[in-house]
Design goal:
single chain, alpha/beta, Nucleotidyltransferase, domain 5, 4-stranded mixed sheet, 4 strands
Length: about 170
């Protein structure tokens, strides 16, 4: 049994005395006010310097201006090749070329015919290819006609925007 000696008391030390703090680990509290200030300054910085992008699919876009059909200097009407794009059966397409009796139903057929037409005029790329698209034809077929004309070797390919008479 442990009995207190002279000068010692049996009561536990009071919390204000240094002996009370000697056994416990010291808790460190950093100053929170400067940390909060820095956090708010970073928040304000990022809010003011952030640029927000528009969502994809809602980007503004514009179609090219409607210009008159391309005609080079001294190019006669006989140097123009008119390609008509019309809807075909079951969502397909019908390509017609002015002066040709048969209609083509595939881009490959159109390409072969345009290559033959270019060879027939002696490889003169200055021949204008005007693509007439009927209003109810899918736009992808009009682009396909343009691609096939460029692939065949024509360099002056454009779209005729005049209203087509139904044939």
């Amino acid at each position: 049994m442990n009995t207190p000696t002279k000068g010692q008391s049996s009561a536990p030390p009071s919390p204000e005395t240094p002996e009370a703090h000697a056994g416990r680990p010291r808790s460190v509290q950093p100053p929170l006010t400067p940390m909060i200030d820095v956090t708010f300054q970073l928040l304000i910085f990022f809010l003011l310097t952030t640029t927000f992008r528009m969502q994809e699919g809602t980007l503004p876009g514009s179609l090219p201006k409607i210009l008159p059909p391309i005609v080079g200097k001294g190019v006669s009407e006989s140097a123009r090749l008119h390609v008509y794009v019309r809807p075909g059966a079951a969502g397909g397409v019908r390509f017609e070329i002015q002066g040709v009796a048969t209609a083509m139903t595939s881009p490959a057929d159109l390409h072969r015919h345009l290559e033959g037409r270019l060879r027939a005029v002696g490889g003169q790329e200055y021949v204008n290819v005007l693509i007439h698209v009927r209003g109810d034809a899918e736009w992808r077929w009009a682009v396909e006609a343009q691609n096939q004309a460029l692939r065949a070797g024509f360099r002056q390919v454009g779209f005729a925007f005049a209203q087509l008479a139904r044939r």
